[in-house]
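Most newcomers find our protein records easier to grasp once they have seen one. Sequence and backbone structure share a record, each on its own labelled line. To make this concrete, we reproduce a full record directly below:
***
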Amino acid sequence: MNPFDDSPSAPPESSPGSDSPSPASQLTHSSEPLAGDPLMLAAQSPAPALPSSPQYPEDLQITWSWPHLILFVLFGLVSLVMVQGILAVYYLPHGQKLTTKQMEQYLISKPQFAIGSMLIWYATIFFFLYVTLSLLRGHSFWECLGWRKIKSHNREQPRNPFVYFIAGSGLSLFVALLTARMKEPENIPMQELFKHRQTALLFVAMAVLVAPLVEETLFRGYLYPLFARLISALLRFFGIEDAPALRSGILGSIVLTGVLFGLMHGAQLGWTWSLVSMLILVGIIFTLVRARTGSVFASFLMHLGYNSLIAVAAVLSTHGFTHIPAGQ
């Protein structure tokens, strides 16, 4: 027998006249494990059940987590400072000493800076998400960020896209009626922007054609499912069962995403908290629609309808930004 052979030769058989069984027959016919043999006992005992990961619905199945969020926030802040800094140095008049207020007013009057910097920053953010979520991972960019057909968890919910656009317009009218009685502070950044006709027209066009696409992709496509999973995972860590933790995670993410959506517009509104609170409510409603339909497309249509009505009202009330009413 070769000691390096993995298939040893058969053991010798017992002699014909012998009554004692051979070692081979003992191994062959013995079905009972040897007493005290841990390997045989472990092989025959059932394996312990492993804890299963929670089953997330389709619209919460994402490939990124909090490390990617940290990298995304850092990249967004650095790129915003760089884009605005480079354009400000390029467009500010050289050889003139301007105060901070004068520089702000001058840059607002330049649509190349006021609108161009935002468009370039939006493109930079989308490029980052495309590379890190789609190109490097082999996933469809739009689908992985929640852009899919509108699905209703309740048959009573509409699936017609036009309904969500009308609902967004109705929400805009409702918010306008609520804020009409609020006293707005003077000289907020948005009012200063509307004093420059070309900048105001381009801003309104961006608010309709670009902002809903970008903001819904970021807030309802990227942040909402991430926050829902993080909150539910945190609750499970403290002993909450899977189903209640998931429901609480979704609810918490709806509120958190809406709050961040309102705060993002705070600077434009001069941190007027009555107006910011209205946008927080709008953001919560957008995210709720995203959660109920499972699609960013539904919240995008609502956002598009919301901004479209505001844009039309702003253009009509100012005669194409040629006449700014008193108090604006």
Remarks:
- Residues 1-18, 22-31, 37-52 have pLDDT under 50 and may be disordered.
- The two ends are 100 Å apart (CA to CA).
